[in-house]
Amino acid sequence: MLLLLSLAQLVYVALFAPLFAGILSTAEEKLESKAGPSIFQRYFDLAKLFRKESVVPSIASPFFRLAPYVTFTLYLFLTLVLPIITAFPLTFGPVVDFIGGGLIFGAAATVKKIAAIDSRSNYAHLGSSRAASLSALSEPIMVLIFILLGVLSGTNNPYVINNTLQTSSAWYSSLLHWFVVGAFFMVLLVETGQLPIESHTQAEFGMIDQGMPIEYSGPELAFFQWGGYVKQFLLMSVFLNVFAVPFWVPMKASLGPLAVYLLIHFVKMLVLTLIFALINETVSKYRLYKNFDFIAMSFAFALLAGLAFYVTGGRL
Amino acid sequence: MLSVYGITGFVIIVLGLFLQWQVYVSRIVLTFAASSMVVALSFLYEGITTGAGVLIALSALTAAIRGILIPVLIVRNLHETPWRARENRPVIKTGSSILIALALVVFGLWLFSWSIGSLPGTAGRYVALPFAMLLQGAFLIISRRNAFIQMIGYLEVENAVLLLGAWGVPGLPLVIEAAVVLDLLGIVVVAGIIMRMRESSTSADDRAARAAAAEDLRG
After folding, report:
1. How far apart are CA A142 and CA A135, in angstroms?
2. Of the candidates B82, B101, B65, which has an alpha carbon nearest to the alpha carbon of residue B26?
3. Tens of pLDDT along A20-66?
4. I want to staple B137 with a disulfide (CB 3.0 to 4.6 A). Which of A116, A282, B45, B157 is the partner?
5. Are the C-beta atoms of A36 and A29 separated by less than 8 Å?
6. CB A298 within 8 Å of CB A183
């Protein structure tokens, strides 16, 4: 049963991740009073890329071609261990805790950067350098957030944290929890490349994640992009299921509640996607060096969570 | 159970960090207005729950003077001197300012708990939060060169003192609290007049140079 649910979760994430990326693009265009692309456009793009041939820079090593498959596999592995549709650990759930999950995210990002550098393209170098500067600061904040969540649940296991927040209204309404939610939301904007950090264009001034895959084409580019959608889906799901709205996630393996929760999860994701679209359409992009001020604020929120716990003397 | 003191204290600490984050003076003034409104709301809540009319009056005074009147006066002054609308040369860079302000909050909380610990009133250990805010306001004054932002820093210190007085010494007479609120109005008006006098007393050459500088800023 658990193995089947793991598979169902894997298929759900892999299939629906491009849909939410498509909904985000369409919603942004609609907010600008434009017709916008179809919400299925990302599927069409992926299908087109899978049909095309790959062109690889002659100077690149074999690692360049391998990297998108490695990162995609790492993201798929994460779908098996994070709480997406269940609040109880599936077959591979006990393999890693939050810190381990963070390390796998970090490993995938590092593989992407090394492959981008391997392409020898100036733009890929520029994107890698900027992404490394940002993640060198944002990823420790994420670790700090996970440690702080450990305070409220006594563990770094995302399933236990979800259960604690689902069952304890005192922890859910505590200042510690809400500061952590604020900090994680800011890091989420950084990690998923939303405004005010990054626009989705290939303009040289603000290009970060768009720069790294610039030399990729064909199926490799498809896997690179698909992996990006899965990463965004996973981070959004973690934000919703563990941090902001941990409710209604089924705690027991029963097909009825699981099917209902799939629908609820879809709605939760839809709302967060629309919030992203609203932010992307109303906030202007920061100049590159101002991004670090944004990260400093997210660090401030994470530290204030700890201070809130300290000032209240551990009471909620 | 969440404490109103905790929520108020941490909201004003966060708004204090927002003050360090902002570059445009009008946004800093608006953030200060929001901070004053939060202080006023906390007085109103306490006044209603304890039945103390003095606190309700103080809440109305704080909202009217600090939340509306002083910000409006500053923003109006700002429109007459548009080259002051943005901090171009902060003493410390914005990111570093945020981190230093955060470190001051940590230091303030530690110092308060180490030296005083907890006060006998209902606010108890939460009095440490306005104390930390006081340090934040003082840091805003020294971290910026813009006179308006420095004034906001001073007003934030006064907000912290007001909250510290109300939480730490609950029985403080209204006349003293009101005096703290009202003297600020005088300070803002006097500071506005001094700034205008300084502008008008400078030579025509200076004015021309400043106008040229303002043109540069226009981009």
Report:
1. 10
2. B82
3. 999 999 999 999 999 889 999 999 999 999 999 999 898 889 999 99
4. B157
5. yes
6. yes
CA A129 to chain centre: 20
Contacts of A310 in chain B (CB under 8 A): 109
Nearest to A153 by CA among A166, A142, A144: A166
Nearest beta carbon to residue A297 from set B21, B106, B125: B21
Other Cβ atoms less than 10 A from the Cβ of B194: the count is 11
Structural contact between residues A205 and A51, judged by C-beta atoms closer than 8 angstroms: no
CA dihedral A242, A247, A253, A255 (to 10 degrees): -120
Complex confidence, ipTM: 0.82
In whole angstroms, give the CA distance from residue A314 to residue A308.
9
Check residue B86 and report its DSSP letter: B
Q: List the single residue in A290, A292, A297 with the smallest CB-CB distance to B17.
A: A297
CB atoms B7 and A304 under 8 Å: no
Q: What is the Cα–Cα distance from B196 to B26, expressed in whole angstroms?
A: 18
pTM of the model: 0.86
A38 three-class SS: coil
**By CA distance, what is A177's nearest residue in B?**
B2
Kindly determine whether residue B14 and residue A311, on different chains, have CB atoms separated by under 8 Å. no
> What is the distance in angstroms between the Cα of A175 and the nearest Cα belonging to chain B?
7
Residue found by looking up tokens 């996970």 in the block: A146
The token pair that represents A47 in the structure block: 């299908």
**Does B10 contact A299 at a Cβ distance shorter than 8 Å?**
no
